[in-house]
Write a sequence for this structure.
C-alpha cells in the first residue's frame, strides 16, 4: 500500500509507463505545439494576447483534456496522474516566480495555467476515493478543459482578445451538455450551471468551473443517485 492513501503499490508501478508517456506528451504540447500555435496566430495577424490565448487552449485540449479522457480507460489509481499534474503545476509556477515566463502561453498578470494543473490534480486524486471509475472527477475536468476551451476559441476568433461574450457561452453550453450526459441528468445540469458560472468576470474559471460542477455531481450522487445514470 502507498501510505495513508491505501493504494496498492503494484497499481502505482503499473501506471508509471503510461504516465511517463503522457508526461512526455504533455511537455511536447506545452513546449512545442503551443508555441507553434502562438507563432502561427501571430503570423495570421493576431495580437500577442490573442495568440497566447490560442496557445493556452491547445494545452487545454491536447494536454489536460486528453489526459483526463484516458483515465477511466487506462489508469488503475490516482496517485501517478495527480503527481503528473502537480509536477506541471510546479513547472508552470516557477517561471512566474523567476520572471522567466514561457511567453507563448503565460501571462504575467495571472496564474490561471497554474490553477488549471493544480485543480486537475486535486480533483482527480480526491474523487477516486468516491468513484473508482474516475468519471466523477473526469467530467468536471473535461468541462474545464474542453468546455472552457471552446468558449475561449470562439470569443478569441471573433474579438481577437480575451473577453466574455455570449457566443462563447453558447458553444460551451452545447459541448458541456454533451460531456455531462456521461453522468446522466446531474451531469447535464452541472454542464449548464458551470457554463453560466464561466461568464463571471474577474475570477479564474479554471477554479470555478470544475469546482461548481463537482459539487453538483457529488450532491446528486449522495441525494439523487438515479440522476447520475449515464445517458450513453
Amino acid at each position: 500500500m502507498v501510505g495513508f492513501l491505501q493504494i496498492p503499490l503494484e497499481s502505482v508501478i503499473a501506471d508509471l509507463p503510461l504516465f511517463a508517456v503522457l508526461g512526455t506528451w504533455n511537455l511536447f504540447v506545452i513546449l512545442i505545439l503551443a508555441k507553434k500555435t502562438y507563432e502561427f496566430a501571430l503570423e495570421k495577424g493576431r495580437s500577442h494576447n490573442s495568440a497566447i490565448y490560442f496557445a493556452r487552449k491547445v494545452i487545454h485540449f491536447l494536454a489536460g483534456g486528453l489526459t483526463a479522457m484516458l483515465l477511466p480507460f487506462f489508469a488503475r489509481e490516482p496517485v501517478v496522474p495527480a503527481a503528473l499534474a502537480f509536477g506541471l503545476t510546479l513547472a508552470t509556477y516557477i517561471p512566474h516566480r523567476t520572471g522567466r515566463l514561457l511567453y507563448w502561453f503565460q501571462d504575467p498578470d495571472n496564474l490561471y495555467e497554474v490553477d488549471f494543473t493544480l485543480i486537475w490534480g486535486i480533483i482527480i486524486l480526491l474523487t477516486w476515493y468516491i468513484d473508482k471509475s474516475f468519471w466523477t472527477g473526469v467530467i468536471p475536468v473535461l468541462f474545464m478543459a474542453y468546455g472552457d476551451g471552446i468558449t475561449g476559441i470562439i470569443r478569441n476568433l471573433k474579438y481577437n482578445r480575451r473577453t466574455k461574450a455570449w457566443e462563447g457561452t453558447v458553444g460551451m453550453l452545447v459541448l458541456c451538455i454533451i460531456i455531462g450526459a456521461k453522468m446522466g441528468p446531474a451531469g447535464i445540469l452541472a454542464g449548464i450551471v458551470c457554463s453560466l458560472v464561466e461568464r463571471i468576470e474577474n475570477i479564474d474559471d479554471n477554479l470555478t468551473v470544475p469546482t461548481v460542477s463537482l459539487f453538483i455531481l457529488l450532491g446528486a450522487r449522495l441525494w439523487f443517485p438515479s440522476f447520475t445514470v449515464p445517458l450513453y
Observations:
- The helical segments are 9-43, 48-74, 79-98, 112-127, 135-159, 166-180, 184-197, 205-223.
